[in-house]
Hints:
This protein is mostly helical. The protein has helices spanning 3-30, 35-38, 46-49, 52-61, 79-108, 121-147, 155-161, 166-173, 176-193, 197-214.
Amino acid sequence: MNITEIIIQVVVVVVAITIHEYSHALSAFWLGDDTAKRAGRLKLNPLSHLDPIGALMLLIVHIGWAKPVPINPYNFKNMKTGTALTAAAGPVSNFIIATFSAFLLRLLNLFSFASIVPGSLIFYLINLVITTLYFSVFINLALGLFNLIPLPPLDGSKILGGFLSDDMYFKYTAKEKQGAYLLIIIMAISFLFKIPILPMLINKPLTFFTNLLLGI
């Protein structure tokens, strides 16, 4: 992997995480909770959402995190539904970006670039756009699918909570701190022993949806 591809990946990751977290804040605001807005999270500013350690872990072990978007579920008309919808907004935003990027990529493939001189500026720019769109598809799908894992505090646990009974919901959400510790342990094992535990959970659906969107 060359330096250009590394820079593209970093940019795509930053954009994907920023929109993911912004979508949480926006959906919560639409559903009646302005906690995130008052905390300065209802903005498309990467500095408002990126966690330095989480971003570093993402680059090192390819699993990281952003600053959690603060919400007050008691501001929702329905606490479980509002929390589930707010949680789902993040992965959904990533899937939308991945789908749109794949559409643009497939649109570009309809054109013939045979007449473009290899090594020219236009040739370089076209390849830059194609590479960026490809990484946008792959990274956004990976981020969305990873967050759907129903392990607290990932979004998937909150989405699942919306389908549980009230009693089970409160028991399940009470495990969020333990889930966070478990996630850190899994990440530590992945880093120390080079075992991509969490990525292995999403590899098959990631490959399937990547191929589906790209028409492979």
